[in-house]
């Protein structure tokens, strides 16, 4: 085994680290992990408070999933996607059994971005239309199509991107352009979508694509009537509804999929991350029976070499069994109440905390310079993470990993986390938020 210094040197010399300015990467050689903790080469332990990229839902190195991968590797490591194999068909059935009503047939991919790419292709193919409506505070992946549909600044370096994308405002109560200062939500964000539909032409729009709960752009939980009203608009104008559950799926919000909080069935749903808890790359797009019938008698001109990879699907089957056997979906809902109370305590103690919000074990701490003006501590879409990097690095120094972007910390630990670990993580956040308080006063 290489020593840590060699791993770091070779990483610097030979590896292009995603989403990073290479000279500014903080290198932490990780050697092993267990439960909600990972460990560096010096033996230092880090409590993972964001499940890495909000995907290690069942925690690290669950023995049941590790065993399933080993067993599958001994039997069949790979077969092409046109051949049948047990783990793929079993996983597809298991997902259909817990998905919103009407969703049945899955095309597997290697991750969320390819799932969203194929969702867009299917919507355009089925409707014969080209336009896709998405939201400004959205992220749907890193390839050209999915990046173009996303709304945040990660698309800017690659624009113009694919044509036909139209963006609308989010149901973001804290910063809503329609009702953020009103006593209650007016749901004008939905009226805004309908107005955009009129301007763009209902017969031109293939789909409305939304994250179940907005993920890396702030964990924005929509008001109760939002999803049902968007479903109504889609039905009214013959537009398909796509729910991107890549981040908010598989128990993260206390339901199998976030849209189930509002009893909405999309026409297409995408997933990844929590389907294998990151153990092996896997994603997918599951479609309604109506769309499946449409594809029965015509070729579907899309695919991936590693679609439905046997090792990945074996990990997915075992992962699904863990969710059920350990009641992790229900556990996320219950622990989410504890998490919410703990994070609201941070709001009471730190003037830099403008709002805490969340659902299940999916929470955001939004940092501001002033609660009255709600000026972000770091401007959204700013070229640098600024003081947020200082906060995250201070947490790392204290043994806590937390994901964040601009002025938002995303708290989304593995669903297996204990209440004691929750309290430990929040206590470290309590310490490092002093940095945010000082920056707000500056």
- What is the structural class? alpha/beta
How many separate domains make up the residues? 2
Low-confidence stretches: none
- CATH first level of the largest domain: which class? Alpha Beta
Computed over alpha carbons, the radius of gyration is 21 Å
Helix content: 25-40%
* Number of DSSP E strands: 16
Largest sheet, strands/sense/barrel? 7 strands, mixed
Q: CATH superfamily membership of the largest domain, which one?
A: Type I PLP-dependent aspartate aminotransferase-like (Major domain)
Provide the spatial order of strands within the biggest beta sheet: 4-10-9-8-7-5-6
State the CATH topology of the largest domain: Aspartate Aminotransferase, domain 2
Distance between the termini: 47 Å
How would you spell out the order of helices and strands? HEEEHHHEHEHEHEHEEEHHHEEEHEEEH
Overall mean confidence score, pLDDT: 95
Question: How much of the residues is beta strand, in percent?
Answer: 15-25%
Q: Tell me, briefly, the overall form.
A: globular
